[in-house]
Amino acid sequence: MKVKNMPYEHLDIEDIRKELREAIELARNAKTVEEVLESHERTNKFTVRFMSNYSLCHIRYTCNTADEFYVKENEYYDEIVPEVQALSTEYSNVLLQSPLRAQLEEALSPVYFKYLEVQSKSMSQEIIADMVEENKLVTEYSKLMAGLEFEFRGKTYSRAALSGFFKDDDRATRKEAYEVFGNKMNEVAVSLDDIYDRMVKVRDRMAKKMGYKNYVELGYYRMNRVSYGQKEIEAFRKNVLESWVPVNVRLREENARRLGIDTYMFYDDGVIVPGGNPRPIGGKEEIFKAATEMYHEMSDESAAFIDLMMDNDAFDVEARKNKWGGGYCTNIPAYKQPFILANFNGTSDDVDVMTHEAGHAFNAYLIADNRFAMEIGCGGMETAETHSMSMEYFAWKYIDKFFGENADKYRYMHALDNLSFIPYGTMVDAFQHIVYENPDMTPAQRNEAWLELESKFRPHIHLEGIPFLEEGRRWQYQMHIYETPFYYIDYCLAQTAAFGFLLASQEDYAGAYARYIRLMKQGGETLFPDLLDEAEIAVPFKEGALEELAGKVEALLLTIKEKI
Ligand code: ZN
Fold this sequence. Notes:
- This protein is mainly alpha-helical.
- Helices cover 65% and strands 3% of the residues.
- It is built from 22 helices and five strands.
- It has helices at 13-29, 33-63, 68-97, 101-107, 110-121, 128-146, 159-163, 171-209, 215-222, 230-258, 284-298, 300-311, 349-367, 381-394, 400-403, 407-437, 443-457, 479-483, 489-507, 509-521, 528-534, 547-562, and strands at residues 150-152, 155-157, 315-316, 328-332, 337-341.
- The strands form two sheets. Strands 3-5-4 form a three-stranded mixed sheet, with helices on both faces. The protein has a two-stranded antiparallel ribbon with strand order 1-2.
- Helix 11 (284-298) runs antiparallel to helix 12 (300-311) and helix 13 (349-367) crosses helix 14.
- The protein is globular and about 75 Å long.
- The chain binds zinc ion (ZN).
- Zinc ion (ZN) is lined by residues 356, 360, 385, 388.
């Protein structure tokens, strides 16, 4: 069925309450495992119904934020979702505390119980008021950032539009754009300090109310992490510093020489290929055609997947008035139908929609019939991003369909960009550990901590002379730091796994692809380190895990560079 024809049903909060309360009571009073399983099945069916309607509402609202009906429905969900979440946590707690738990874990899934445990550890009635305050601060931050306007060469730009000039082939243009950006940001620097300071304090308070030493532990639970903790992330950080940073510095400095750059400035970091970064050869129609061909050539499963997406009009990619400006991949479980929203802009980002977002969608398609598709789904963020980021590399074989004679330029830019992301992302995460372990730091001390991290993780980049940035304030426009603490490291972990698949696919595409599909099909039912072991991909937080990988990626990049 076409996504636009899927019927939407408004679920009344009274009915939702009744359904979930009954599920909680049935599970609580059950005398046998069978009784719990029976009520669990019923709850699952209801979850499918609820999530499908929630998803349809979100899709229709984001496709047209002026649609009166869905604007109202969207507000309704904002209102009821916290209560639905609280009821769902209550249900989880009943399963966790059940006298039948051991048998239930066996009959259901031990991994599912791990997820229930972190859910329970991340939530408590005592912090609800703090969570409301936290949400208000997030809104305050995003409003402040969204309202910024920049005067550049006689015209007014939004931040997104101005950042187009950060990648300009002309060095003076990039520099000027960053100066304009930095001067404007300096006007709101004190407000940004103040919002963040209040956020750190409220998060620290929540953690302490729940009996944790500081926000770090609670933050990890709130990220639903079941297969790694602070110790593993510390080991990963060490691996990045020892093995990844030197490779990034060498490749970037060498590339800068090629671009005729003497001192590598912050404003040089967005440009990789001389003459400008490559763009796709066609618009929407050509990109859709290329993607259809690619997925047909890749495998039977990916062919069936892309046909399902195309037949059901499950892409909305044209930028237009009243459409939400971001991008996402979601799923409508009742129809086992993924859906992708994007705003094509003529850059290589458009191709990423057909590789990265479609990688997420392909995963949703592959796991739709898994036994725990609703309870566990695709797993943690690190696993989900491994699915999508690896697909970006499996697409390399077909990338000339999108970039024509610039295919190698794209491959080089794509891999170097991703390679440089790992030190940056790890630094973003390290910064947050410092901040939440020391909640009384002053804003100036936070900036100092950031500058110190810059010198360790990106020692080749000079910040002098760029307003705002030279004071160590780059982190203030990394929205994840404000909005979703500790989210960032998952991208880094996943990126190393994706590089593992890239190298494997260079040696034996069919073998690597088969291992990737096996990993994909398990969704989150196998834990991240076990998934990687099974796929013969290095687990990034094992000691020395990145050394060989970094060396091989460097060699591959140098080979591609010879050709461009
Ligand atoms: Zn993603």
